[in-house]
Amino acid sequence: MSKNTSSRRARRSTQKTSNTQRAAVTGITGLVLVLIVLAAQLVGIDVLHVEEGDKATPVPTIPIPPSIKLVAIPGGYDGGWFQVYFTQPINTEDPSKFTGSPVEAALIEAIDGAQQSLDVAVFEMNSQPVTDALIRAFERGVKVRVVSDGEYGLEDPETTLDQIEFAGIPLETDGARRGLMHNKFFVIDGLYVWTGSTNITVNGFYNNNNNAMLIRSSRLAQDYAAEFEEMFTGSFGKTSPQDTPNPVVTVEGTQIEVFFESEGDVPARLAELFRQARSVHFMAFSFTDSMEWRDGGTERSVMELLRDEARAGSLDLQGIVESSSRSYLKPLYCADLNVRQDGNPDVMHHKVFIIDESTVVMGSFNFSQSAANDNDENLLIIHNPDLAGAYLEEFTRRWTEAQEIPSSAFDC
């Protein structure tokens, strides 16, 4: 792969079943326990650690979940019901070096563990190891289906999606349209969801800064499976119905808000969170002041809301943007706020907000008007201080290597 090709592709990339709890219950004690469990379930308390009941709309007051001890694993942390990963860019064009990524390895392990089904939505794909894992799964009888972007997926000259199609795996694209099928998610056995900013590409795993999570939750998997089904049957962008089965999911005390665009309204929810926030850290491949929400009868910019809150002294704001997208930061830069451009010679591809050191916004969603209004995207708002701590560690790493935006960049 030539340097020009690598740079071009990096720049254009806009990004076993769980252990069922078993208990042997005997005698009178067992009967009492069964009655307690049944009663608890009837009032919505999940004492068996299955996801709790969903709510129709996100709630602004979020209970703090019990602290969990994150265990370091290659490329990230294990939180029990989730694993979170961060890429470690090696910034090379040497194909012999494209091996050993912990993030790529974790995804392959998840695919190899699939027993029944794999629904895959990928913006683009040229990772041969992941492609091989999907074909292996199909050949051993797993039901595999794939949706990709028409232009950047199946039609890309370097794609491995043609191998998926040749293997007989059902594959659909969004064809030629204004928006992008920009998701990067896997639904495994109706129980696990893999999602994040990481494109399933060599650059995504080896040269770009990215994050990904593997989450064990049947309710969350139900959401992603429903979104996949809509796309697989031809509903993309705003034509896709806004009917997420479980818009809020609770897993072991952690509340997760689930959004799919462009049928949702991510900007409005972000604005609500930012108005309540004391601190916001962001890492963004793209963040534009054209991402707006309707505030009463007025369209308002989310970026300008952050600027105004920070200038008023009610918000501690610190952010990093991909260097090629720095031009969008003018409202923040000219307000003399604490923003930098990234230091990765390839691409800083994160799409992350960390709010009050306790809430993480992550997924495929670039913070832009096109992501909100045209594309197919997914975004999670996860209320968990331990997870937020892991993302803050990544922020610190990226901030340390980030660079001051040159004064010549803007005419303020």
Write out key terms for the chains shown:
single chain; 412 residues; alpha+beta; Endonuclease, Chain A; nine-stranded mixed sheet; 13 helices; 22 strands; globular; disordered N terminus
Give structural notes.
This protein has a single domain, classed as Endonuclease, Chain A (2-Layer Sandwich), CATH 3.30.870. With about 400 residues, it is of the alpha+beta class. The two termini are about 40 Å apart. The strands form four sheets. Strands 1-2-3-10-8-7-4-5-6 form a nine-stranded mixed beta sheet, sandwiched between helices. A nine-stranded mixed beta sheet has the order 11-12-21-20-19-13-16-17-22, sandwiched between helices. It is globular and about 60 Å long. The chain has 13 helices and 22 strands. Mean pLDDT is about 85; it is low at about 1-60.
Question: In which order are the strands of the major sheet placed?
Answer: 1-2-3-10-8-7-4-5-6
How many individual helices? 13
Q: What percentage of residues falls in helices of 4 or more residues?
A: 25-40%
Distance between the termini: 40 Å
Shape: globular
Radius of gyration from CA coordinates: 21 Å
CATH architecture: 2-Layer Sandwich
How many domains make up the 3D coordinates?
1
**Contiguous runs where pLDDT drops below 50 for at least 5 residues:** 1-60
Protein structure class: alpha+beta
Question: Oligomeric state of the chains?
Answer: single chain
Major sheet attributes: 9 strands, mixed
CATH H-tier superfamily:
Endonuclease Chain A
Tally of strands: 22
Q: What average pLDDT do the residues reach?
A: 87
CATH class: Alpha Beta
% residues in beta strands: 15-25%
> What is the CATH fold-level name?
Endonuclease, Chain A
